[in-house]
Amino acid sequence: MEVKLKPYSDPSRWVAIYPLYIDASKSLAQGRRIPKAKAVNNPTCQEIFDVLNHVGLRCELEQKKTHPRAQSRGAANPKQQQQEEGRIRVQLKGDDGENVGEGATQPKFMTRQQMMEYAAEMVPKLKTRQQQNQGEQNDATGKQKKRK
């Protein structure tokens, strides 16, 4: 069956979001889709999924999918590969063609661009991100040498 004939509620019609799209360390040529000023450093698909799922959007996490431009396919660094792996499928429209998430509690996303910018804005506010930043700051202050 052709994808265009399927209803909007079918996951194959949902918007795919890769962490690469909102990564500030990537260039536009490498696949970043939002302005660098609005992007976030090294987002993971789990973080993006948590943000969009919390808003109330129907999301699906696909851990084993990788963006074609991701350079980590043959990378020796498994941590980098783990960060770039995965994608999130998000339902933006209902079966009637209207945007999903229109209400007092849910922000209205007219386009995938608005949704990506919202995710990039909210990822740094996650508790896991804040705990990591506090741990890095404590490590940096503990390594200072005393001067005589």
TrEMBL record:
In its UniProt entry, the species of origin is given as Heterodera trifolii
Bias type Basic and acidic residues, positions: 82-96
Give the protein's function.
Component of the signal recognition particle (SRP) complex, a ribonucleoprotein complex that mediates the cotranslational targeting of secretory and membrane proteins to the endoplasmic reticulum (ER). Binds directly to 7SL RNA. Mediates binding of SRP54 to the SRP complex.
Would you say which domain of life the source belongs to? Answer: Eukaryota
Q: Bias category Polar residues: which stretches?
A: 129-141
Cited PANTHER family: SIGNAL RECOGNITION PARTICLE 19 KD PROTEIN (PTHR17453), SIGNAL RECOGNITION PARTICLE 19 KDA PROTEIN (PTHR17453:SF0)
Q: Which GO terms describe its cellular component?
A: signal recognition particle, endoplasmic reticulum targeting
Name assigned to this protein: Signal recognition particle 19 kDa protein
Give the InterPro entries listed for this entry.
Answer: Signal_recog_particle_SRP19, SRP19-like_sf
A Pfam family of this chain: SRP19
Describe the family membership recorded for this protein in Swiss-Prot or TrEMBL: Belongs to the SRP19 family.
Signal peptide as annotated in the record: none
The cross-references to Gene3D superfamilies, in alphabetical order and at most eight, read: Signal recognition particle, SRP19-like subunit (3.30.56.30)
Keyword Cytoplasm applies: yes
Q: Where is this region: Disordered?
A: 63-148
Keyword annotations for this protein, in alphabetical order, are: Cytoplasm, Ribonucleoprotein, Signal recognition particle
Compartments where found: Cytoplasm
